[in-house]
Amino acid sequence: MGCVLGQHDETGKKEHAIYYLSKKFTDVETRYTMLERTCCALAWTAHRLRQYMLCHTTYLISKIDPIKYIFEKPALTGRIARWQVMLLEYDITYVTQKAIKGSALADYLANQPVDDYKSMQCEFPEENIMVLFEEYDDGKWTLLFDGASNIMGHGIGVVLISPKEKFIPITARLCFDCTNNMAEYEACAMGVLGALESKAKVLEVYGDSAIVINQLNQEWETRDKKLIHYFTYIKELSLEFDKITFHHVPREDNQLVDALATLSSMFKMNQNDEIPSIKMESRDYPAYCHVMEEETDGKPWYHDIKHYLINREYPPGILENEKRNLRWLSASFFVNENILYKRNHDMVLLRCVDVNEAKEILQDIHDGSYGIHMNGHAMSRKILRAGYYWLTLEKDCYNYVKKCYKCQIYADNIHAPPVPLNTLSVP
Known about the structure:
Number of helices: 16
Distance between the termini: 25 Å
Order of helices and strands: EEHHEHHEHEEEHEHHEHHHHEEEHHEHH
Strand content: 15-25%
Structural class: alpha/beta
CATH architecture of the largest domain: 2-Layer Sandwich
Strand order of the largest sheet: 7-6-5-8-9
Radius of gyration: 34 Å
CATH superfamily of the largest domain: Ribonuclease H-like superfamily/Ribonuclease H
Shape: flat
Number of strands: 13
Number of domains: 3
């Protein structure tokens, strides 16, 4: 018996089609009828490809229909009942085989079965597994280091990574004259000391300085008098570890500590001052979208643009850069009879609306008299075709659809189970 698994996406859904993995029948299974052998092959294939077939619709392409035989057989034997229970969790659709060339690969697999086949125990799979957990190597720490020297000063940066993936950043500014290689050695020494303070016994050191890594690995000879003392000091610290290794990485893979070293080299501070904590976040939308969507001053988001187009006056107290941005932004707007319009890419004029009007438009388009509860992308395109515009149009459409009660209640059910299904009864 052979099986071929394929995937196609013609109707917008991910679907799988199976013919028949290579399986060698046992002595008992060879005495089955042709239809029962096909059913056995289908059950064996579904068991092996379970992780693929659970989340998709599967088309069974075969000469005969084993699904109809299994589910319409009046007298169920032990094996037929077992196959029936196993196939209940899959969405399998039978398709009649038409082209002979489509099954050439499956026929080849059927003629070349494997010899290491073991009998399938499908009643309680993996019954000996009680709990799954992620195992950590408690003794393995990772150290990333880098040094920076520029016209502003010298700085070093270190990141210690614990066995549980906890990142510990360390940075310092060097207030004495040193070369770039000396800064690299200073960073490595500070990181090794930090690892000793964290009671690490196994340490992997990564740096982008080829000369430092190769000298510490004793592949290159250390001849510079300024670096010999650093080399001796780090080697003495290395004796405190059970195992320590040094590895070279490209600069592209060492960006985090490179940023720390550059920051410490350019940031001037007093002797007893501490660098304040820096919080980094990501933004998915331009800054003006977050500012314009809330009309806290009672004016619409397009007030400054409209005022500039009518009176050619800038808002009071703005900078020259903001004036230039306002002129650039106003070039795509047009005022007619005290109504502001936005020129689209195809030169169609779209009426600009404020927050209150935008909420009414969203409600009417999505769930009004002619609303069809469409998704966010389609609703934003329909609003543009209707001739309306505001800055946060597409984002507001997506957020409105997510909060629609009817869309959540009457949406299509997700057929994939939240947890893997297990057979509860044995035929």
